[in-house]
Amino acid sequence: MLQHSPNKWLIWTGMGAIASLLVLMFAIGLLGLRWRIVGSTLPFIITASLTTRYLLKKD
Fold this sequence. Notes:
elongated; mainly alpha
């Protein structure tokens, strides 16, 4: 939190942990046709995909 440039391993681990929960919520929203749940998980999915592209491009 106070680091200027956090370790990539820490970023990948944190994104993976949060993604496992939010992908499950996304799937539950799709299966139950709960569009509010789907909509609430989309910002994280978009942010995680953009961060992944940035980290892979940076290597």
